[in-house]
Write a structure and sequence with these properties.
Blueprint lengths: L1 H16 L1 E10 L9 E10 L4 E3 L4 H8 L4 E11 L5 E10 L1
Antiparallel strand pairs: 1-4, 2-3, 2-5, 4-5
């Protein structure tokens, strides 16, 4: 019985400590892409399945943060713990002039 509780405890800790991160392109425009691009980042975080949220993870917020008026590309990076039940974070990365 002790072994069962030990393995259940280890499994529970593993599930709660695990997280998933992914980065994906969201959009590309016909605006040129060069090495002197500005980068703007915005973040949105949700805790406990969205009960508590902070930040603005939108494209406009990211462009404003980077001083970008002409968007070339947009990427999104997501991170979640336990499938977003515990915590999830969305980061929008905008490239442009």
């Amino acid at each position: 019985m002790k072994k069962l509780f030990f393995f259940l405890g280890v499994a529970l800790i593993t599930v709660f400590a695990s997280s998933c991160t992914s980065t994906a392109p969201l959009a590309v425009t016909s605006n040129s892409h060069n090495n002197n691009m500005k980068v703007g980042i915005s973040r949105h975080t949700a805790v406990f399945g969205g009960l508590i949220t902070t930040g603005d993870g939108g494209i406009n917020a990211a462009a404003k943060n980077g001083g970008i008026t002409k968007i070339s590309a947009v990427d999104v990076k997501t991170t979640s713990i336990l499938g977003g039940v515990i915590s999830s974070s969305y980061q929008t990365i905008v490239y442009g002039e």
